[in-house]
UniProtKB/TrEMBL annotation:
Organism for this UniProt entry: Brassica cretica (Mustard)
Organism superkingdom: Eukaryota
Protein name: AB hydrolase-1 domain-containing protein
Domain AB hydrolase-1, residue spans: 50-158
Amino acid sequence: MTGCFSISEVIEGAYRYGFKRSGIRPVTIDLKDGTVVHFWVSKTRDESKPNLLLIHGLGASAIWQWYDVARRLSPHFNLFIPDLVFFGGSSTTRPERSDVFQAQTLMRALEAQSVKRFSLVGLSYGGFVGYRMASMYGDAVEKVVICCAAVCVEENDMRDGVFAVSDLDEASKILVPESVKKLRELIGYIFYKPALARLVPPCLLHDFIEHVSYFLLLACSSNDIWTCVYLS
């Protein structure tokens, strides 16, 4: 980027350091079909502790959304914190973009780590993925917590005014901001005090867009973008 150092990279570096100090290490699972899944996992797996999968929502990577939570949970669970495909260190050469594909990919990656049973927490878009996993792999999923994810939403709900946006095109422009103006609009929906966003220098917002919007564009196809909508 121009005019500013990358504060996003500085913050992410601090998060990585904090994860490692909390006993959580990075691993990469190659599924041998062009798909690679990056995880943060407990350094030592304790068979007396339950397995817990934390699925992030829209954002640059899992570490941004689960940093504070994971450090507090790590003494009590065997943690598995993946980057969804196209986020952070996870990628694929396959054409699929749906939440079903994300669920299948996570399940395969967990099986590759010999994880047979687990509970999960899904946040935002991760809630849709977690819902799919519970539906598709009921024998493996024990307990489910879904946060901030309208898993029962339908496209006509948007037309009927249930959400603050009226159609898919408008939703995608807000959820995948490509300008400072659209990012400030997104902040206006999700921040308790959105007026504070006006105090953030534009170069820092550009930095965040460069770290986040690319992943969102890859992850959400035009046919699947409605599953990412959770604005209200």
